[in-house]
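Reopening this one. Same input as before:
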Amino acid sequence: MQSRFSYYLTLLKNLIILQFFFLFIMSLFRLAFFKFASSEIKADFIDYFNTFLLGLRLDLSVLGYVFSIPLLFLIFAYILNRFISFTFVKRVLFFYFFTFYLFISLILASDIGFFSYFGDRINIMIFGIFDDDTRALWEIAKKNYNLFLIFTVTLVYIFIIYKLVKRFTLEIKAVKVKNYGILKQISIFFMLILLTFIAIRGTFGLFPIYHWTKDVAHDNFLNKISKNGVYLFVEAIKQYKKSKNGETDYIKEMGFSSKIEEAFKIVSNKENIDKTDLIKSITYNTRYNEKLEKNRLNVVVIMVESFGMPILKYQRDNFDIMRKLKKHFENDILFKNFISASNGTIVSLEPMLLNLVARPKSVPYAQSIYQNISFKQAAAKVYQKKGYETSFIYGGELSWRNVGNFFSKQGFDKVVGKAKILYELSLDKKNSTHDWGVYDQYLYDYILKKLQNSKKPQFIFALTTNNHPPYTIPKDYKSKKMIFSEELKKHLRGDLELIKKRLYDYQYALDMAGRFLDMVKSSSLAEKTVVVITADNNTIEGVMHYDNYVEESKKIPLYIYIPKSFKPKDVDMQVPGSHKDIMPTLYNLTLSNAKYIAVGTNLLDKKVLHCGFNDKGIIISKEGAFRFKKAANKEQKLCEKYYKAALAATDYIVKSHLKK
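Same output, byte for byte:
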């Protein structure tokens, strides 16, 4: 007859073997990321080895946490074995490991899906799934993915995990062991606790391995896949909770605790400021302009969904992705060294319309404690005070991210969504919309109609919905065939057919923007309307490989059409910038003697420092782009200093509204 200890020792041995099986499965999940890798990973064997070694240690750390509770439970059950049956212990462990393995697998699979779209590991943006239009997301999934295959593979995977866990928890056959005394039993349990603790820490250093995960390779892709999805998800939860409640202290994080006035000195480029009214230091006035006083210009700002610049370098006659937009980009003002504030739509849109910089690892203002705040520095309020009718126009549902409610408080007289556009243009919903809203052509038609019928000067901000999964274009639109060169294919990763579908939607979106400009320029609006085209982000980043990731991946356009008689001379279109600079530039181009508050700069002002900031820690300067805390020359160091100050100033301005 086997001793009680032999059964528990056998079960412990089985659980350790089970853990190593799942450790192997976690490594397979890491390998799956290579489906989205470029064929040109610049790395050697040591880089690959270090990548998977770090990944293995992080995975082992996660499994250490998973194992710690069953280990303590087994020790407790062994001590009280007279009251707890071994069968009950096995069933509890079966349920525990089966549940945890499926939960971990769900996180790892979600991480892969997130990476396939955003080109980045799971982060706070994953919670956008819950804050976004879930019905539209479901429709995207149905149209872009083989759900039957996915569900089938998922069921097979669940069955494999079920059989694996069952084999090592329920089907126990005790092995013959020596009749260990109580001291040896205690020693074994103590040794297992110690080894589990070491596995969790993953290192003998001062900090546990998950506390600070350093880069291990020269290639950015390898550094990304070395991370562990579970730890990233846990960190995203912490960031989401903190951001939702407005608890993140960016002033402290940027090094301006107890000296916030220094941040405002840097942002304003002024040494002497009123310390009792810091916001006054970044309050500016545009010059008096008699011509603008007599001839007020309409101002239309279009944010084209996911319109990144990198793909445009492949523009050819046989790859005409720009179509009608091409001639406008060639003939008017186009800032090319321009980057998005963030990688998400709402987190680029909000800071631009609030004259702030994007806060890293934060939730949207419209879905936080600030959702009912009317910000005094809101961009539209400047035009509103100058007698303009101001409109926020979105081609989708105004309930998306709470934009309808939020922007109605930010100086917009009119907040218009899909339903209003359909009604005003007498459109048939079935043929005029896709999963996210109206087709772009109808959004532009609505704007044109509004401009033509207006009696007051118009300030219009519009957000398009095409060039977004599931990449649907109108049935009557005639796409122009695009031939994908070998050079382009070499820089793409993932499902080529889905990428092609995506780029044909891209073509449609740019063509419609060009069509709108054609209509404006060929009408009486040409002499009294300014049109700005930019983007929310460059989400094609998720399927593209870049020769220089930092330099290229965040680039979006800032295009400006302004009537010839108002067009400034000698515009430096190489000046770097980001979303924070759009409105200050427009104020100075289109308004006379207007007061505004902003942390950004007027891109036409050659006397100030110009830099672009992306909340993923990428900064662009006139000496090139670089990562935060990796400035390599004087200009980059100045931009890094400006970024830290701008983020601290943003935090101060935002939180000042809560004190009232």
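So the earlier flakiness isn't reproducible anymore. For the record, The radius of gyration is 29 Å.
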